[in-house]
Amino acid sequence: MSRTRTAGPPGEPRRVGYLYVLPAFAVYAAFALYPLLKAVYLSFWDWDGLTLATWVGLGNYADVFGDERLRASFGHALVLMAFFAVLPLLVGLVLAAVLHRAKVRGLSFFRTVVFLPQVVAMVVIAVAWRRLYSPDGSLNSVLSAIGLDSWTRGWLGDYTFALPAVGVIGTWFESGLVTVLLLAGMSRIPRELYEAARIDGAGPVREFFAVTLPSVRGEIAVALTLTVIAALKTFDLIYMTTSGGPGHETTVPSYEVYRQAFELGHVGLASTIGVVLTAIIFVISFAITRIGDRVTD
Amino acid sequence: MRVSTSERTLNYVILVAFAIFALYPIITIVVAALQSDAEAPGGVSNFSEAWDIGRFGSYLRTSVLVSTFVVAISTVLSILAGYAFGTMRFRGRDLLFYLMLLGIMMPAEAIVVPLFFDLQAIGLTDTFWAIALPQVAQSVAFGTFWLRAFFRSSSRSIIEAARLDGASTWRILWQVLVPLARPALVTLVVLTFMWTWNEFLIPLVMVPSNESLRTAPLGLSFFSGQYTQGFALLAAGATIVALPVVVLYLFLQRHFIAGMLEGATKD
Fold first, then answer.
1. Which residue of A has its CA nearest to B78?
2. Domains of chain A with bracketed CATH
3. Nearest chain B Cα to A42, which residue?
4. What's domain B63-214+242-264's superfamily in CATH?
5. Whole-angstrom Cα distance, residue A202 to residue A2?
6. Per-residue pLDDT at A203
7. What residues contact residue A163 under an 8 Å CB cut-off, 6+ apart?
8. Measured between alpha carbons, how far is residue B96 from residues A285, B80, B93 in Å?
9. Among A41, A115, A122, beta carbon nearest to B200
10. Which residues cross the membrane (chain A) (predicted)?
11. Are A191 and A165 in contact, with CB atoms under 8 Å apart?
């Protein structure tokens, strides 16, 4: 390569780029990309991590969808998505719209407070919520105080309510993030759009659907991507609150990866669950981005 | 915009209710951490008690070492890679970039199983490297993406001018672009620190038997297994684990939220 090419304007081919990219790519390839490929490879084997592996082809994949407990774990992940992504989106839209319209004071304080759950370690969050849900916790105290004694229970140990109880923790965790994202999006909407809507005689509700909602589609796509991925990856929350129980009412794919590989010694099957989980995350992220793009155009 | 008094009042009610909902579980922990029970003397001494019994000194030390290493190494590597991806053209650039982009979505759950057995085979499990290097890899994927967006949008004419002055690509990066990228870098550092500090699965799997290498969240989970009757010491331990990130967040929150939102909607 001649000197003049190296010193050319930006946009010119620059081989020196490889040198800059190399260190990051090497670490990434060794500790993320290669393990992912290895997981795909392992997913075709029956292996306990110690003795010789046997080739099972797509057998593990058949197990993931055939085994009742494993299939249920994907169903639970779907339920958690409603709590981690859909509910926070609804809460966030209402809150952000209200705050955006009213231009209330103390907005930056509010933003700081509702975002706080995002920075606290999930292990700490689990400790707090375990306490709230415990038989003598705040939730039951409130229920007793308003005369709903028959409703009190150990929420995380209840066959019917354990999964929604875990889900509510997710709603609590993600609502602030979504609200802050949407607030930022709404603050960029030009004032003229609202004035035009008002001249057309739009009330607050029509104004929301005609102006506010279409303007924050990009932010909605970002929020959904982040929260859906969080719902699918929630391992520490399950590990710390219910360990998948009672029975296997709250188990999720990420928890099954851990359990199958490190508690039961089914390394091939665990890898398969990890691969399926990754594929689902890729597809959903891609779909949300595509839909977001198309609507914005 | 004119809003009626009743609507205004209703807005504040909604606002306060939601703020309480967001804060309540966190306040529960802080309040409980100061109370006394069978094992806990109450007040601030709960923290020293939890510190000693729960060995949080050792856990925090590991967490500080791991987080510092991951943040420092991944930031430098991300600057280099983001710079090349953002300002240079070379064969295979887009392919390499999209491969790294996968790393942002790739769940730790998928890679932790093969990583554990490969690292075990070369004797790296139960070491610092087994916790730190996978997290460098994940942070580098995000950091490269983050800084590429910044370097791409940074003014071409600045780079052009620097080059006319005879600056090398290396000098342009460190003396011209990095100082301009400071807000983006601060956000990246806070995010990487927060994710690394709060990470649970990787330390749980990678350090099966070396107690001295447990990170703070991992230490808390073991502590919580032992303390089931008294909640005060557990709450004190939880506060100790959460505090470093919360303090950093409160200190930089204005800047941090702004930077995060800017990055989230860019590209």
1. A24
2. 79-253 (1.10.3720.10)
3. B114
4. MetI-like (1.10.3720.10)
5. 65
6. 85
7. A76, A79, A80, A249, A250
8. 19, 14, 5
9. A122
10. 16-37, 74-97, 109-129, 161-184, 267-288
11. no
Pull the structure tokens for residue B104: 């942002």
Tens of pLDDT along A265-297?
A: 999 999 999 999 999 999 998 898 887 776 554
Encoding tokens for residue A40? 């795909």
- Find the helix or strand (DSSP H, E) in which A219 lies: helix A217-232
| B163 interfaces chain A, CB cutoff of 8 Å | yes
What is the rounded CA–CA span in Å between residue A20 and residue A17? Answer: 5
At A288, the amino acid letter reads I
pTM of the predicted protein model: 0.92
Residues of chain B with C-beta less than 8 angstroms from the C-beta of A111: 257
Return the pLDDT at A10.
52
Nearest to A33 by CA among B66, B207, B134: B134
Work out the pLDDT band at A2, boundaries 50, 70, 90: very low
- Gap between the Cα atoms of B110 and A254, Å rounded: 8
For residue B254, give the nearest of A176, A107, A122, A182 by alpha carbon: A107
> How high is the pLDDT of residue B265?
63
Sorting pLDDT into bands at 50, 70 and 90, what band is B267? Answer: very low
Tell me whether A208 touches chain B (CB under 8 Å).
Answer: no
Angle at B35 between CA B33 and CA B39, to 5 degrees: 90
Tokens of A267: 């390394």
DSSP A29-69: IIIIIHHHHHHHHHTTEE--SSS--EE-TTHHHHHHHHSHH
Burial class of residue A239 in the structure, from the number of CB atoms within 10 Å of its CB (0-12 exposed, 13-18 middle, 19+ buried): buried
